[in-house]
Amino acid sequence: TTVTGVTYTFKDNPPYRSFPMVTYIYAGHSGNAAAQIMTLRIEGKKAVNTNNDHTVTWGKLFLGTYGSESGRPMESRPSALSFWYTHDPYEGDSFLVNVTIYSNGTQIASGMSTISNSTSSWQQEIVELLYSRTDLKATSIYVEFVSGTKLNSSGEPVHQSKGGLSVTHGGDKTASVHRGSVVAIDDVELKYDNYN
To answer: HSE (CB half, 13 Å, CA atoms) of 80?
Structure first.
């Protein structure tokens, strides 16, 4: 691989020093690509070796500001969030979808869904929004998809700790990594009153 005049040579199984928990695949629901999130274990500074110096975390895809749940500007009142997904859960894990509508920092509506079923074919999910305040105007929305919810006996997200599991990432590349659940998300849209 050559990047800006520097050539990098990799063997068949390079030691990943960084590996994305949020990536994309060339297998969308209605188009040719979809977002993908996964639970990943990083061993010290690699994603493939097994030792005691590791970190495990869920992949998270969100609409908002990093490090905050303040959301992005939006002045409408949707009644639901719809999206399509595929899910490869690890050891009965579930993925989480959380939607919150704010009015100048005050929560006025929310909806959440936890999905555990395994499916390689695209499935639709609709997350209903329940409004707790109808007297305030919507000013922002926060949406997050989290690759897992289940913890193992060590208090870490469930994952493959020995050996590796194959995963597609970066469009059509594959790698063997210590991972947990993998979720692909596509065609996310807000729905209004009469969406059936």
So the answer is: 14
CB contact at 8 A, 180 and 158:
yes
Question: DSSP string spanning the chain?
Answer: -EETTEE----SS---S---SEEEES--SSSS-EEEEEEEEEETTBSS---S-EEEE--EEEES-TT----EE-----SEEEEEEEEE-STT--EEEEEEEEETTEEEEEEEEEE---EEEEEEEEEE-EES-SSS---EEEEEEES---B-TTSSBP---SS-EEEEETBTEEEEE-EEEEEEEEEEEEE-SS--
What are 13's two structure tokens? 């199984």
Q: For residues 56 and 179, what is the distance between their CA atoms, to the nearest angstrom?
A: 9
pLDDT band at 53; cut points 50, 70, 90: low
pTM for the full predicted model: 0.79
Residue entry with tokens 């068949």: 12
Q: What is the pLDDT confidence band of residue 2, given thresholds at 50, 70 and 90?
A: very low
For 131-177, how does the pLDDT look when each residue is reduced to its tens digit (9 = 90+)?
A: 999 999 999 999 999 999 988 887 877 776 666 767 777 777 777 67
Residue of 25, 35, 31, 92 lying closest to 59 (CA atoms): 35
Strand 80-88 versus strand 179-191 pairing type = antiparallel
Mean pLDDT (the chain) is 80
